[in-house]
Amino acid sequence: xxxxxxxxxxxxxxxxxxxxxxxxxxxxxxxxxxxxxxxxxxxxxxxxxxxxxxxxxxxxxxxxxxxxxxxxxxxxxxxxxxxxxxxxxxxxxxxxxxxxxxxxxxxxxxxxxxxxxxxxxxxxxxxxxxxxxxxxxxxxxxxxxxxxxxxxxxxxxxxxxxxxxxxxxxxxxxxxxxxxxxxxxxxxxxxxxxxxxxxxxxxxxxxxxxxxxxxxxxxxxxxxxxxxxxxxxxxxxxxxxxxxxxxxxxxxxxxxxxxxxxxxxxxxxxxxxxxxxxxxxxxxxxxxxxxxxxxxxxxxxxxxxxxxxxxxxxxxxxxxxxxxxxxxxxxxxxxxxxxxxxxxxxxxxxxxxxxxxxxxxxxxxxxxxxxxxxxxxxxxxxxxxxxxxxxxxxxxxxxxxxxxxxxxxxxxxxxxxxxxxxxxxxxxxxxxxxxxxxxxxxxxxxxxxxxxxxxxxxxxxxxxxxxxxxxxxxxxxxxxxxxxxxxxxxxxxxxxxxxxxxxxxxxxxxxxxxxxxxxxxxxxx
Amino acid sequence: xxxxxxxxxxxxxxxxxxxxxxxxxxxxxxxxxxxxxxxxxxxxxxxxxxxxxxxxxxxxxxxxxxxxxxxxxxxxxxxxxxxxxxxxxxxxxxxxxxxxxxxxxxxxxxxxxxxxxxxxxxxxxxxxxxxxxxxxxxxxxxxxxxxxxxxxxxxxxxxxxxxxxxxxxxxxxxxxxxxxxxxxxxxxxxxxxxxxxxxxxxxxxxxxxxxxxxxxxxxxxxxxxxxxxxxxxxxxxxxxxxxxxxxxxxxxxxxxxxxxxxxxxxxxxxxxxxxxxxxxxxxxxxxxxxxxxxxxxxxxxxxxxxxxxxxxxxxxxxxxxxxxxxxxxxxxxxxxxxxxxxxxxxxxxxxxxxxxxxxxxxxxxxxxxxxxxxxxxxxxxxxxxxxxxxxxxxxxxxxxxxxxxxxxxxxxxxxxxxxxxxxxxxxxxxxxxxxxxxxxxxxxxxxxxxxxxxxxxxxxxxxxxxxxxxxxxxxxxxxxxxxxxxxxxxxxxxxxxxxxxxxxxxxxxxxxxxxxxxxxxxxxx
Lengths: 525, 525
What we know:
homodimer, alpha/beta, TIM Barrel, Double Stranded RNA Binding Domain, 3 domains, 8-stranded parallel barrel, 3-stranded antiparallel beta sheet, elongated, 2-isopropylmalate_synth_dimer (chains A, B), Citramalate synthase (chains A, B), (R)-citramalate synthase activity (chains A, B), LeuA/HCS_post-cat (chains A, B)
């Protein structure tokens, strides 16, 4: 089984992505996670470019990494000056990283127009820089920037730059499709040509500007490349780098090549989601292999067939990559979906009830609800339609007041009046904002009767305007993600008023928690 | 120049996507837009599956389409019964669509396990259904479901199903990678094999489960397919259908093939964004060719090189697909980015000022700000640092009150007290929600002095929790998109309090509008 090395540049090239900003702490957390996943190389940063990257290389030396090697990234020496006094090379050496990745120019046009130097001097810059870092005991890899464009313009010169790197002792030369504009068959042809001319290892570094980065990376491996550079979830500048998640899954599951460590593949979904969380980016539901929707089934016909025979609509078993099958609630899904989602209630023989649930879902969807990310709210809806719901408390009124004068922080106060058993509870709380204050007041009222609510944490809060093209007022859809020790659940509220929508989602979250604990208690008793 | 037909199934297969729900009106708007783009075929729905799809085919007959043909989708007749009495075929004929697309089974396992019928009867189902629709004067296309999996399991039988369709008069047989699990070289090999055996046109229908749908569709075209089925923006079940946007751009710009109509390509970005708006889905910033970030440059080095020579970091000219180059503000972008963004102020020789702006951006980014989607707030920041800013009014205080009792709609009231010139204005307004009420009260105070504010519309409002791993309270980031007759702009506010964050973004939007109109007035005077 041939082994392909995985080189992750999420921390460096990934951080060029729009909306991506990693703190030092983020970078260390990600390094640990990538090491757990079993990535071979972690490119930690560009030590000369900013102080945070420099600090990273100091701090990362304290991390007990099991498998991954940390790499520092930098450029070839400046033109017409020796490597020994070059500030970028000095920063690379000072980083103490065991592997150094040096990028240099391949494209004759760029050497002349951007570097404003001779083709000959560029070859020396490549050779000198690599030889210098090698002489100080580092493993050196060479990133051939714009390789495919450069090869198109002047193949002889492009090959000369690779040979200069090889001669100077580079362990791998990496062919970069920097602009992401190359087609798979061209990648294949040029990697084949390079592998004939070069004896050291060949790597591939693709960008996704034509939505072909995964295909291009796979084509390169089939043509002889043994290292793939990319980022987790494909984050990166413009349209992103190649998504290593898809590359890893395809190399292993589709081509039977060895990647990462034994058992790594089943950690892929969790690792992908962790990176989104740390990067504070929205997950991409439709992401291949690891997305929430990657094995989600909505169409009634499909849902039925999947239940009969998973291979009908699943190209792999989702558990191989740590993901799971989901059945979605929607107007298209029909009765068999609702059946699957309501199995625990044993209602499946009650056809009129199933229709009532389906109708209710459709009505709420027309109002702007989406139950796909709010399975706890859906569960409450089923209880309500089936007559299994009894409210845990009655809302009598709430009030929120936010006051701000320009010299002070805004003050937010919420009051809540509820009926619980035969008492009326009236509580007040301040908060950072209105939802926080409402949550505080409501918990004050409920906590002595339901102490388990102290475990409940609100972990995410999202707001989306639901455009209403019918011309009436726009609504907002609030989704809240909640967590206790063992569980995560989503709830939803829709209203013209963001506070009311938040309140609805908040109450659903609390009621779901109370029902869930009661049902779990009934089981264990 | 060879022509490739584009078959859009956004309205049918796309609507299977998680979170996608089209109203009848949505579907008609999308049909018009796809026709304007010059798509060859528009699959409007599955008339038997739900009443909305049936109504669509009635209503679409009134649309004056310039180029596109509308198709109705359905299945082969049921087993062991004649086509004349089949309800699905009846619905297809009744739809009056000039083109009918019939899907049938290719995979022997599915015929036996899912349809529970014989391989022979399945061939008859395909042949009868197509022949029947042909006999009533319709053009018929045949979707070979699971073609690639079926061919792998039993190539002889898979080819027989295609030959049954061809014999019955199908104009195109479309090879579907229904599970999205096939690799590009396998697609290529099997499409080549089919093109040798079949005389009618061959089409390709890919799903993106391995992130290879675009590569697979291109491979099929290179192997002889002349029709590509897919959806706008790749929306669809699981990981989506192939994104026609990328397919169209690659076929035309990279392979020189004729697609759509003359001039269509430059409409691609606008059409893509229109589909997101109608589908009420978030745009994918990193989407190839048409994403907001597809030609955005963040890294300082890149930004500098792009300015010198666009071909260095752009694989195509963004205007070819109706997109544009953007230069982003961020800690990595350095001085040359800030220079590009502040050109209109002619401050580029003032290096200390440039550093001050850069520092301010970095400080605010650490606080949770992101200027990438809030260029209007960035513009105000530059004005403030450069001493070109004078507030249009002074906030003295605001107050928002939301009251809800369970029998009534929540009531929201906001009061605003501001200083304007030498007056103090104190106004109050009700609103659907707190932002709407604050906006109302503020406009009441400002409108008599600045009547141009009546043109200002808030068009989008987004909230994101900014996770703060330092352990202090979480902040929320509010971005508001505003519009007047000629312009769209984004502003941002960050605070622990959602109301305060909204207020900051709201005030920025109003101030930006006032500055913008003043500067435009200065130019025309």
